[in-house]
Amino acid sequence: MRQDFRCDCPFTSALDVLGDKWILVIVKQMLIEGNETFKDFTESEEAIATNILSDRLKLLEEMGIIIKTKRPDNKKSNLYLLTDKGLALTPILVELATWSDRHLRDIHPTIADGEKMEFMRNDKAAFARVLVKNYREKLAATPVTHNSG
Asked: 9-83 maps to which CATH number?
């Protein structure tokens, strides 16, 4: 599946890939919640339909945002991991969460709060660095061949 782009605008081109409501949710689930398998994604609170999940994982893989591999100890299930290109989306996710915290809390008062949100409010860049560092440490401990995009 080749990605079609509407125009040469960098903003619009990014949205052509990332603008679907599930793409960044999947990346967030991988980065923050540690989702790695199809089952992990289907059991998440966002409740993405399996056909949509399959399609989006395939697109993310084709775009080099994730890789699909297998664990040496379990060849039956696929393992999905963020590449460097996928991890580069971390500041965008942090900015979206910050915007939501600041501008949606009045109409959606049950948005998550707590220590992590306070850390993010106080230092977005440090928060993003910690997310990436933690993910890289998890990758280093995962028994697979790592690719990066």
From this structure: 1.10.10.10
Where in the chain are all domains bearing CATH 1.10.10.10?
Answer: 9-83
Nearest CA-CA partner of 16 in 1, 2, 6:
6
CA gap 26, 11 in Å, rounded: 20
Q: What is the pLDDT of residue 134?
A: 95
Are 86 and 148 within 8 A, CB to CB? no
Long-range contacts of 74-79 (CB under 8 A, 24+ apart): 77/37, 77/38, 77/39, 78/37, 78/38, 79/36, 79/37, 79/142, 79/144
Query: Per-residue pLDDT tens for 66-120?
Result: 999 987 777 788 899 999 999 999 999 999 999 999 999 899 989 888 999 999 9
